[in-house]
Amino acid sequence: MCTPELLARGLRGRYRSVVRHAPKWTEIPQYPVISGIGLLATAVTIAWWSKVNISPLFASAMIRRGELWRLVTCILPHGDILHLAFNLYWFWVFGAVVERVYGHMRTAALILLFAVASSSLEFAFAVGGVGLSGVVYGLFGFLWILSPRDDRFRDVVDGRTVQLFVGWFFFCIVTTLMKIFPVANIAHGVGAVVGILTAYAAVMPRRRMLAIAGTAAVVCAGIWGATAGRPRINLSGKAGYEEGQWGYDALTDGRDREALRWLRDAVIYQPNSAIYWYDLGIAHQRLGNKAAAQAAYQKAHQLEPNDADYSAAVEDLE
Length: 318
Prior knowledge:
Blueprint: H1 4-14, H2 32-49, H3 70-73, H4 81-102, H5 104-125, H6 133-146, H7 159-177, H8 185-203, H9 208-226, H10 230-233, H11 241-252, H12 256-269, H13 274-286, H14 290-303, H15 308-317
């Protein structure tokens, strides 16, 4: 017999909160990794809004010059108050649960993993993003798999949480395609995938090595894509300007081999930039490769046939 009291209990169980209540703010000292990163993100964001130069933290082409820390530090700045508030809330809700169960060091390692994987592939294929979104999606994917499989995470994520994050993911894709506001959608997707793979490695011993191999493949692809492979896979159409400037600077300093390296990349990014082809021709010519120099000069001339310098360069090598 279903009494009103039993019915009420059933409804409470069925429609309970999407997520366990977040820890109280007074509990911040118990979660030094999550609270510390959250406070640092807030401070960095406020500094950015206050016109403080935080450019060394952004994902930029300097990553290709060895500044790999940018793949992690770019998670700290946020574009606006809603961006910051949304990310901090879910980072606190999800992250505190993970830190309570897994401890400080493993939580820090997971955040580092999610940051590098999501930021590297976002930068590899696009222009790079800012904010904790990739890490939050990593934590979401991680807890999505663990919630029904590990009693320590029971009910952390339920169906409505999944609907929210999946719905937001596709909503952000639409707003990006419609140019309403751009979102780091690749970071979201990669973060979720790596979170899911990491969770499977934790709860499915028979498939652990496969999940670890998948995670390693994503991270390695991201590092390669953000460095050596970026000119060949970047889809933004807005990259290559830094490489072109570095190539020109190297030419003026007499570092011709370095110039050749950067200018080769610049013309892959920007194949319709005559000046990059012209500078590439100069680099080839200085290094004694007449055929390659002539081909580069001819390309510059084809793109801008009325430029006297380009036509003269072609004639000089004929």
